[in-house]
Each structure stands twice: as structure tokens, then as C-alpha cells.
Specification:
The chain is mostly beta strands. It contains 5 helices and 27 strands.
Length: 484
């Protein structure tokens, strides 16, 4: 029944609108030789790099994961191969257990448990960027990036598919407040970091200031408990609804030619500190870091729509005949029909043409320990900081990453706890200037319950010789190209 799939479809529609979106890309961030890529996680990180300069030619990653739905017994390559044929896409919910499944089938199903649900997707493409470290203890960097992210967290268990599916017609379901947001934007940033030597190491501070250009954005928020009731005929009844939502329509409005348009702008900052103990650069015993990243927001003011549905101010019944929503051409048509169903007027929900969306702000703590030359173990905690509902929520992660790290070869294996619910295995390898890895290796190999995937790579340029730049003598510690 369409009513029983309604919230499932809404969830995937919100996240899917920002398709092909990486999360933390640990292999690009925590290595001793991460250079300019490391300042994304901690803006003081470059001062512990042994490079005099580091240039990122191109690096990119995508990430998507959720605990709402899954595909049974598959992996990414199996999915890509078989998703081209629509006949292979099978809804497992209504497929009898005694039906023999084909190897090519992709069986979609939903998780049946009482956990809070989430779905998140992100993309990070770093363009030409560079950093330079001077002998006087200062580091300067420039970064450019194209980013996209969308997420919803803390979706109540009674909004999950199987709870709705088992609720009889006519019985109300109370859905606790939820919110989701996503956007696509570019950023250009300048990083400055000074270092101060201590009696047993070095203390570094860093700040990155970024100018943001927003291209597409959307959010939805239900600030109070929403009551829904299902009825036969694919119909929902909404009661006590307060629904706020906004979106850009420059690429969803059929009256406008699709194009990349600047629809908003904003500023953001990253701040952080790193301390090394018992040494410096790759010679330390401990490296401890703390940072707050993505402090800021984007204000959208062009090609935008802001809406609010508030049933407390009207006598409308709030009846949603879901069949009427199929075949509509763009977001505006959905919004107008929704407003007409709830408020009795297709334009009544429109309240403005501006809104803002906050970046995926997070606190990060890092600890790195060298227990043998070139052998390290890193612990990284990322905790989202969400100050309002109209902001993208970052996934919480706790990762333990042992690695081998040398000038020309690095390899790491991560154990990652995501949102304090799901455990993932990550892997990365660096050969000189090329990095390749994933924070969800299990999605690539071996058929299993498929909830998402992750992949990242990087191509860089940096010197054969390591150490700070010396303009007068060209000094610095030399590393032969064959030394591992």
C-alpha cells in the first residue's frame, strides 16, 4: 500500500536528491604525510607534516549510509551490474519467502528494530590546493573544494516502515519531531597556522576561513509531534501538523533550464590545535589534536521557496490522497498540492523566498601514538554539533586506525563505529603521491547486507626532500626516493 511506503519514500527522496554524495576519508586526513588534505579535519595538522610544501591536484570521495533500509546479500559491484535491469529490483517486503530468488535480484527490505534511524550522504571534491611551511614555524594554505551533503538523524522507530506497516487503518501514529537538510556548495579557504616549540615537542594552532557559494539546498522540519493516520485508498490523515520546509528550484523547476547557478553564499571557519610530545613531525611519540570544523551557514536568496504548514491555524482536515502525488513534474507542484490538501489553498503555505542551512559542524579529537618506527595507531572521534534544525547533521564516528607510514608507502586499516550503532572496516593505501581507500571496505567485497558505500582517492605533488622550507640555503632533511 502506498500509505505504508509514504515515510520510506519521503526519507529516500530527501537524501536521494543529493545523489552520489565521503564522510571523513580517514586515509586522506590522519597520515603523517597528509599535508594540505589533513587541514580539513584539523586546521593545525599541516604543521606536523614533514613536507616543506604540498600540492593537492585532485582528491575526491563519496559516501552514503543508513540504517533505515537495505539490500539483501549484495555488494557494490553486484549492485552496479544488476541494477541496470529494472526487473532485478525486487521489493522483498511483499515477496513470499518460498519464492526462489535469482542471483541477479536486488531485494530491497527495511530494518525491523527499535533503534533510532538515520540516513546520510556526502561528497567532497578537493580541487587545486596547496600548503607551504616555513622555517619560522608558520604554515600557509589555500584550499578549494566542491561539497555536497544531506542527512537526517534521530528518526523515531515508529516512523520506520514495519511499524507503520503493522499499524491498523484508523489508528493514529505519533511521530516525534524530525528534521532533514542537504545542499551542494563550493568553498575557497585560506589557512594560517603558527607553531611554538615546547620543552618536549611542539604546540600548533590553526584557523581556516572559507567563502561559500551555495548552489542547491533543501530542508524539512517538524518542530512538534505529528500525528498521522492511515486509511484505505492510499490516504493519510495529518493532525496537529507543523511542517516547515524550503528548497531551491533552479534545477527542479521545469520552467527554468537546468544549470549550475549561484543561489546563496556564506562564510565558515575551522579552528584547531595539535600538540606533539617527545619529538616533532614523524619523529614524535604522541600527537594530540582537537578541532571544530564547518562553523558556518549558507544563506539562500535566489530561486528559493520557503513554506510552512500549520494546522493549528486552520480548519482543514489534512487529508492526503497519495495517488494525486504521482506524475508531478517538479518540487513546486508537490508543494502546491500539499498546501492545497492541508490548507485548502495551493499558495497558502508559501511564506518567503529566503532560508539558510547550516554546515555539518563537528567537534573532532585525534590521538596518534608511534609505538615503533613507522608504525602508528590513531584514534579519531567526530561528534556532530547541531545548533538548529536547519543544518546538516554530521555522522558521529569513533575510529581506531593502526597504520604503517613512511615517505613513499603508507597503509592503514580502520575500525569505525558510526553513529554508535554500526561497525565498519576501512582501508587506505598511499604510494608516493597517490592515495586510494574506503571507510566501508565491506561494501566492496563479499555479499552482505548492503546499506551504503564509501570511496576516496587523492593525487598530490610534494618534494623528495622533507623538512621546512629554507629560502636562503634550501636546507631541510633529505629523504632518498628509494628509502622506505
Amino acid at each position: 500500500m502506498k500509505t505504508r511506503l509514504f515515510f520510506s519514500c519521503c526519507l529516500y527522496f530527501i537524501i536521494g536528491s543529493f545523489s552520489l554524495f565521503s564522510q571523513e576519508q580517514l586515509g586522506l586526513r590522519v597520515d603523517n604525510f597528509s599535508g594540505v588534505n589533513g587541514i580539513v579535519l584539523n586546521p593545525a595538522a599541516n604543521l606536523t607534516s614533514p613536507f616543506r610544501f604540498d600540492i593537492n591536484l585532485a582528491s575526491a570521495g563519496f559516501f552514503i549510509d543508513n540504517n533505515y533500509g537495505h539490500i539483501r546479500n549484495t555488494h557494490l559491484f553486484h549492485f552496479i551490474k544488476n541494477s541496470q535491469d529494472p526487473d532485478n529490483l525486487v521489493n522483498a517486503v511483499y515477496t513470499p519467502n518460498d519464492v526462489a530468488s535469482e542471483d541477479s535480484w536486488l531485494l530491497f527490505d527495511y530494518f525491523d528494530n527499535d533503534k533510532l534511524k538515520y540516513a546520510s550522504a556526502s561528497m567532497y571534491v578537493m580541487g587545486p590546493s596547496f600548503s607551504i611551511k616555513l622555517n619560522n614555524g608558520y604554515s600557509f594554505s589555500f584550499i578549494s573544494a566542491l561539497r555536497g551533503a544531506g542527512s537526517t538523524h534521530r528518526l523515531p522507530p515508529n516512523a520506520a516502515f514495519y511499524h507503520i506497516d503493522r499499524t491498523p487503518f484508523g489508528e493514529a501514529i505519533d511521530i516525534a519531531p524530525i528534521n532533514a537538510a542537504g545542499m551542494v556548495w563550493s568553498e575557497f579557504g585560506i589557512n594560517f597556522a603558527p607553531a611554538f616549540y615546547t620543552y618536549n615537542g611542539k604546540l600548533s594552532f590553526g584557523i581556516t576561513a572559507k567563502y561559500l557559494t551555495g548552489y542547491e539546498g533543501a530542508f524539512v522540519e517538524t518542530p512538534r509531534t505529528l500525528q498521522i493516520t492511515q486509511f484505505p485508498g492510499d490516504t493519510l490523515l495529518l493532525d496537529n501538523s507543523l511542517i516547515k520546509f524550503g528548497f531551491t528550484d533552479s534545477n527542479t523547476n521545469t520552467d527554468i533550464d537546468p544549470a549550475i547557478r549561484k543561489n546563496g553564499q556564506g562564510l565558515s571557519f575551522d579552528v584547531g590545535a595539535v600538540m606533539t610530545i617527545e619529538g616533532d613531525e614523524e619523529g614524535y611519540i604522541w600527537r594530540l589534536g582537537a578541532s571544530i570544523v564547518d562553523i558556518g551557514k549558507i544563506n539562500f536568496s535566489k530561486n528559493t521557496q520557503l513554506h510552512q504548514i500549520d494546522q493549528s491555524n486552520v480548519s482543514a482536515l489534512g487529508i492526503l490522497p497519495l495517488d494525486n502525488y504521482s506524475g508531478l513534474s517538479d518540487f513546486s507542484d508537490y508543494a502546491n498540492l500539499f498546501s492545497d490538501n492541508i490548507l485548502g489553498d495551493s499558495l497558502a503555505s508559501r511564506t518567503g523566498d529566503r532560508f539558510s542551512i547550516g554546515l555539518p559542524t563537528a567537534l573532532s579529537l585525534q590521538a596518534d601514538y608511534q609505538f615503533y618506527p613507522n608504525l602508528y595507531v590513531n584514534t579519531t572521534l567526530v561528534q556532530r554539533l547541531k545548533f538548529n534544525a536547519q543544518a546538516i547533521g554530521r555522522d558521529n564516528i569513533f575510529a581506531i586506525t593502526p597504520r604503517y607510514s613512511s615517505r613513499w608507502i603508507s597503509a592503514s586499516l580502520s575500525l569505525i563505529l558510526r553513529n554508535y550503532q554500526q561497525v565498519r572496516t576501512g582501508f587506505s593505501v598511499r604510494l608516493a603521491w597517490f592515495i586510494l581507500g574506503s571507510d566501508n571496505l565491506g561494501s566492496w567485497v563479499g555479499k552482505s547486507t548492503f546499506t551504503g558505500t564509501d570511496f576516496f582517492f587523492g593525487l598530490k605533488v610534494n618534494p623528495f626532500r622533507t623538512g621546512p622550507w629554507n629560502f636562503s640555503s634550501g636546507g631541510g632533511k633529505g629523504t632518498k626516493c628509494y628509502d622506505f
